[in-house]
Amino acid sequence: MARKVERTEEEWRKLLSRESYEVTRKKGTERAFSGEYWDCHDAGMYSCVACGEPLFRSEDKFDSGCGWPSFTGPAAGEAIETADDFTHEMERTEVLCRSCGAHLGHVFDDGPRPSGQRYCINSVSLKLDRK
Question: pTM score, two decimals?
Fold first, then answer.
């Protein structure tokens, strides 16, 4: 699927904070328990910080104890895409914004029922649109 949002690296640098750029465009990770949303309980829609695509609903957020915002699933299946990630001598599944390709975090099979999945997402890759 072709990306909806295409920008140059320079445009991304101007648009995003330094930390958001490092995470979303360079596949970085923010420190655990440091992000704005890891312990946020406000209602609303979590959107991609880079392009505004709606990604995760607050009602699907749960406290996983890992130090990053965790969700049982995306707001809509077509909002995200996944890719194999073999960095850091691990085998993981990377979560990306389907609209702009921003790195969001990773998904693991240790979440609560019924999905059994934990979408572990960097706060700096999100923007909460509060209800």
Answer: 0.92
Active-site residue identified among 48, 97, 100, 120: 120
108 token code pair: 């693991």
Say if CB 67 and CB 32 are below 8 A apart. Answer: yes
Q: Distance between CA 18 and CA 98 in Å, rounded?
A: 22
Question: For residue 119, what is the enclosing H or E element?
Answer: strand 118-121
pLDDT digits (tens, 9 = 90+) for 81-103: 999 888 878 889 999 999 999 99
Phi, psi for residue 51 in degrees, rounded to 5: -130, -10
CB 48 within 8 Å of CB 99? yes
Is 40 tagged catalytic?
Answer: no
